[in-house]
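Q: Predict the assembly, please.
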Amino acid sequence: MTANAIRLDCVKKSFGMTEVIPELTAEFAASEFTVILGPSGCGKSTLLNMIAGLERVSGGRIFIGEKEVQDVEPKDRGCAMVFQNYALYPHMSVAGNIGYSLKVARVPRPDRERRVRVAAEFVGLSGFLERRPSELSGGQRQRVAIARAIVREPQVLLFDEPLSNLDAQLRHDMRMELSELHMRIGATTVFVTHDQVEAMTLADRVLILNNGRVEQFASPHEIYHRPATTFVAGFIGTPAMNLIKVIGDGRHLRLADGTEIAPHGRTGPVVLGIRPEKIGIGEGVIASEVIYREDLGSHTSFVVRLNGEQEVNVATPIGTELAGLDQLYLTFPEKDLHLFDSANGQRL
Amino acid sequence: MVRRYCKAGKMRQGFYVGRVTYAMLVAPILVLIFLFFYVPVGLAFFWSFFLERPFGGGSQFVGMQNFSRVLSDPVYWEALRRTVVFMIIAPGLAIGISLVLALAADRGLRLSQAARNIVIWPKAVAGASIGVVFVFIFNPFLGIFSPINDLFPGLWNPRIDGNDAFATIVVAQVWNGIPFNFVILLSGLQAIPDMLVKSAAMDGAGSWRRILDIQLPLLTPQLFLTFVLEFVGTVVEAFGLIDTMTQGGPGEATTLLIYKIYVDGFKAYDLSGAATQTVLLMIFVIVMVLLQFRLEKHVKYER
Amino acid sequence: MIEKATGIDRTATVILLLGMAFVLAPLVIAFVTATQSYQQFVQAGGIRFRISGHFLDNIRLIITETQLPRQLWNSFVISLLVAAIKCAFAFTATFALVFFENRMNRVIFAVTIATVMLPLELVVITTYQIVANVLMPVNWIVKATGIDWLADRIAGVRVPELRLNLLDTYIGIAAPIATSCTSVFIYRQFFLTLPRDLPRAAAMDGAGPLRFMVDILLPLSWTPLIATFMFWFIGGWTSYLWPLIAASTPDAQPAVVGLAKLATTDPERIPEVPMLMTGALFVSIIPVTLIAVMQRQIVRGMNLSEK
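A: Predicted assembly structure:
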């Protein structure tokens, strides 16, 4: 199966007066698994629909491979899509659902039946071809939707929050299956979600979208360890990175009231970011008052208050437990600090 | 600067955009209702301001003359009065009986299933057909009341006594009107969540109490709907009954507006007069419906 | 129900029995009388609750002596037309209103729903005029735009008054009955419960709007379609005032009108009551059977509780 890159060139979208995507340029490499991640209403589904051809672009160009497709009918773009609520045809059997696109394309019956069988086998549904969608479990319906998408051997596979209706265990299992599926068929895959776990586990690269703008487009590792903006920093991780407004005096970073937080050569106001699990506990210098604790078995998670106002999340390293203390002494190691511009939130 | 993408309005946004296909899909119904609904309504308004010249000589504008002619006719006012009386009695009885029947059928008794089926049958019987039967049943000499007439001659005679005649029309109308109200009210009752009735029982409310305090109040939207439909329905549905049972008589005791329009238009060939009465009746119906919908805001519950 | 409530249940049983009795009484009386011969009826001097053996004779009388068989066929065709027009036109229009994005949506929805407010029977007088010449609006347009004047001036051609009389025809009787657009309302409610992504999935599979309508929406809508079809069929069958006016000859009249004519053209002697009762059952048996058998489907498909 051939795979093609997708290139978005200054793509714009607005509904009436509302601008959903002001201008977006990005390239999703061939055979790569790209996840578009963002809060609800950020424009990620609109973006996916524009790639699929279900929504017209208001401006800009979309390329799939070498072909400019923004004015091409969905069926001629070589894309297939898996929808949020599966959108299976309730009155058709599993075989009917999988084979419908081939029927529309007038593929002769024997050929059609063979391809339906292959696709069903691929997702492990061979024994269910005559069932109706209503007789299947959530996970099985999901697989029908996937089989329906791959039966046309698309160059591009699009997923619109496909796991959001499944329970936690099934979601985990489907993630594994999707990852394996991607390895086997190798189509260029674009996957839209608001779930950071899905993004981090599935993606080769993650595109983080906020208000129609790209906040960061990088590998999961880089997104976690070098967030490009305060938005990304605050969006990724559970609990998310602490973001604290500080002022540098050239030698130290201080809170507004002058409390010394960490040594650093920076001057002027900046936003300091630090992940909860990177904060050192015990030997430190910053006194803090514990206002909430959760013992999760593997580790303990705290919410503490510095200096009477600034709340900070702290997590102990895996395998350590702390007894019920009212006060913690913290350190912010210099190598684990992230600094962001206090005006535009960009990484410094 | 935060720009938010709002999903458009309450109307769900359609997905397809093709204008030609769209036009093709809506054209049949638009042509149909234009020709056979809007044109007739418009024509009725037209003729209410014009007079048809005799011998097919076209039309002549007469302003409000038709209206003043109709409205100064005491016969018209009598027919209007009778229509209003009919519109109060017949729907009231039909809805009241349907409500009691629906409450009984909702109790899931062994009889309920059969009752739910049979009570709907009159919906499938034309008013004119059952009118033929009722006129026989109420016949003073041949029908069920003939024994009474043998004892007290002249006590029951819808052919002579206007009130008797009016009563027969009401009974027939109620018979015809029960099914639809029954179905609406029963499905309304069944849509009331079981939890509510159960929690009322936990609160110590007995069966009668629950009917009064829980079921009836929650049924208000359906009751309202039945009233709207019945009011509009009775204005016109009684025609089949009147035409087969009394022909508007005796005297004019059962001449409701709809029957008068028919007689004036098709028996007396007074096109303008009939059209004017049609316009007045249309306005009457529309005002009633709009009034009722204004009231509706007070009876809707979020379920 | 929750606790045992014998008292109230007993009351309910009595109520249901009374209700059924009220509904069945006229039908039973009609049937009993229909089994008697005219002689028996005259001798008894009126109503008599005894089943006799002359029902088939009376049926034979109806078939040979009256126009009712032919009129039954008329009723059937007219009712089919009414139901088919109402369902088909409303289905395509509602499909457009729900699944297309178009500025006209609101207007068209309002224009169709407004027809529900005024029943046809109110405006029969002028409906008669338009059905007597359905091309009347075309004539108005020709006059209003001055086409006739132009044609006369330029080509010297006199534009004739167009005429197409649909009185006494099946379509002319059925079409006005089919104008009430309640179906639009019912179908719309139903379409809005379908998954939003269905047309998108179809588009990805290569199916355009019409293909989607036929392959996916239509099979999914059988329940409301069949229910409304039955309901409008019965509605067409039982309508009276308009067919009475629009069909002037017995050959064109539906059975309900035929029956009423039979009942009212009697002279002063004792009317042929047994035959009339047989006739009343004869014209009602098809719709009543329909509603007795399909009751469940009709009620569920119309979704009356959610209006």
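Chain B has a mean pLDDT of 84. Chain B touches chain C through 109 residues (CB under 8 Å).
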